[in-house]
Amino acid sequence: MTDALLLLFGLIILIKAADFLVSGSRSIAAELGISPLVIGLTVVSFGTSMPELLVTLVSGLDNNADLAIANIIGSNIANMLLVLGVAAIIRPLPVQNSTVVSEIPFSLTAAVLVGFLANAALFSDYPELSISQLDGGILLFFFLLFMLYVYKISRENEEEEPSVPDLGRARAIFYVLLGVIGLYFGGRFVVDGAVSLSMLLGVDDALIGLTIVAIGTSTPELVASAVAAYRNQTDIAVGNVVGSNIFNLLWVLGFTSSVVELPFEVISNSDIVMMIASSSLIILVLVSGRSNVIMRMHGIVFVTLYALYIVYVSLR
């Protein structure tokens, strides 16, 4: 019971800390005249990806690679099916052409790249699968390319009306600092609680990472996108999910694996396939319709598929 409470307490701290970080960062970015789409792809995505970064990094340093990798893959699947699904149920989500032809395919490419790097050892004489420090450097290189792309579209959207900041500068900076501190301690509590709980239940770290921890660390994305959809800020709702997925794969996993090598289990390939399939499904939904809109019916299908996936992982 104590382990479960520690995990729950850590998740609550992570969610609240991410909220502080996003609120403060978004206010500062809006004050600087940054467009809503770019805020969603960068500031909000970075803030809502901080729980994944802290959990993954701490897990990697504690030699819990299964938890580290499962957290990233599980969070991305939750983002695409659960978060986008719930946001679309609240309000149909129009998606900009640039997101359809560039950002979502970039997210799909990042998922395929991670799958390739994790299994690259199969083509060598020493088939011990892992995401190595060299692989981490490759992921960070592609993350740099993504940031250059974001910089390019931010220049193109300079005339777009920015979001109105709702915080003073001093309060915004205080929120950012409070968020960073909370994320550190929340991440530590989540990892310790998850590892202890998996030992107590007699299940592997990957199951806890793909379900409880993944959903928990995806809660900031869920809250941010749901609120943005309710307020009709659909650019932020969609940009947050797509940007967060790219951050998770290229920045979080890239940074963590560049610090410490992460052994990879073959069974996790089925989860990578699910992650790739989820991105492909979103692209299919958008290109098959007359307009780039994720409808409520699509959202219901996404959430249903996610529920079926959780059942499959649990039975597996």
Key traits:
mainly alpha
CATH H level, superfamily name: NCX, central ion-binding region
Main beta-sheet strand count, sense and barrel state? 2 strands, antiparallel
Write down the secondary-structure element order: HHHEHEHHHHEHEH
CATH topology: A middle domain of Talin 1
Helical residue percent band: over 70%
Shape: globular
Given helix and strand content, the structural type is: mainly alpha
Summarize, please.
With 316 residues, this protein is mostly helical. It has one domain (2-315): A middle domain of Talin 1 (Up-down Bundle), CATH 1.20.1420.
Commentary on this structure:
This protein has 316 residues and is an all-alpha fold. It has one domain (2-315): NCX, central ion-binding region (A middle domain of Talin 1). 80% of the residues lie in helices and 3% in strands. It is built from 10 helices and 4 strands; from the N terminus they run αααβαβααααβαβα. The strands form 2 sheets. It has a two-stranded antiparallel ribbon. Helix 6 runs antiparallel to helix 7 (205-230). The mean pLDDT is 80.
Please give the structural blueprint.
Layout lengths: L1 H30 L4 H26 L3 H26 L2 E2 L2 H23 L10 E2 L1 H24 L12 H33 L3 H26 L3 H26 L2 E2 L5 H20 L4 E2 L1 H20 L1
Antiparallel strand pairs: 1-4, 2-3
Helix pairs in contact: 1-2, 1-6, 1-7, 2-3, 2-5, 2-6, 2-7, 2-8, 3-7, 3-8, 3-9, 3-10, 4-5, 4-8, 4-9, 5-8, 6-7, 7-8
